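Q: Fold this one first, please.
A: Sequence and structure below.
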Amino acid sequence: MASQQVVRYTLVFHTPLEAVETCKAAIFAAGAGRYPGPGGYTECCWTAVGTGQFRPGDAANPHIGRVGALEKVEEARVETLCVGEDVVRRAVDALKKAHPYEEPAYSVYKMEDF
């Protein structure tokens, strides 16, 4: 009988630079960034800096900028591994609690193992 593979996910999120370390600490505490295997690697991620933009709508309560005005912000894009659906769900919940934005930008991708 073949061994059961745990499903892996990539969590990607964007955050203003002043909140990067807070968001990373939250997702890592939830179990994100741990690689399976003998190395015992933890807190693994990839981070790049770029420019995000958004225009808050009439009902928004923006952390940065003001309603109706186009805002451009230097942000970090962070990518990390989550092993198991329970881990990615906990990491997303932790991210939402730690992130300063009203609506954090994030994506979750299910990975294939070839």
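Q: Good. Now the second chain.
A: Here it is, same layout.
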Amino acid sequence: MSTRQTLNAVNQPSSPPDSSIAAEISEPSRSSSSSKITFRPRKIRKVSSVPLDSSPMMITASPLSSKSTIDIALRHLQTSDEVLGTVIAAHNNPPAFESSSTPFLSLARSILYQQLATKAAKCIYDRFLSLFDGGESGVLPEAVTSISAVDLRKIGVSGRKASYLHDLAGKYTSGVLSDEMILEMSDQELIDRLTLVKGIGVWSVHMFMIFSLHRPDVLPVGDLGVRKGVKDLYGLKNLPGPLQIEQLCEKWRPYRSVGSWYMWRLIESQKTSKTKLSK
């Protein structure tokens, strides 16, 4: 696949965590419809402190951009984790990672959506696109740099976010970042390089890797929805911390992105059930 073809395959989030689930995280989200998931969470014993790199076999998985890859991921998760398999079986719709945006546009959009409700964020994003010839196809680093902070504030972008957008665009125009470089970076390289951009933290990079780059084995240990999902899935008394989540979800490798997707769906389903019961 050529670089241009690969760029066209990079997607925007099709089903990121619900904004209320990730209330403690400053990032955009759009929830998807969920079927009611009913199962009895299984209590677990104390997590052993086995080194995370002690697995006898490490598998490299393909990007989550085809139905066949998703099917393989689901079979692996159902086989490796019986409790998660119950959640997967109860959910009618499999994960979908579809749309077509370049890495630069995806990152710019994530900045604009930060700390905003979905409806308000989309309104500002649409105004942002109107500043460029050709809409999304015109959102290029040089074009973003040419728009002043004053003009961005006129469409509802805060001064801080304007500085974030200019910093992102500046790193592209200076050669520190490029779409081609991003597509070739390892997961850790992406975290190290992208968090140098103002306004982009580790959580943002995790969401970018899952929903835009379709990386199959990303575990967003700082995401509130994933933490709540893992807590309920395994019957924990308290929200697990990063190390405990990594230990518990080690069995999901090399498809921890898909396992995380089901944690968001699990929490959404529970919220829907509570809403119905309260009526």
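Q: Anything worth noting on the second one?
A: Residues 256-278 form the longest helix (23 residues).
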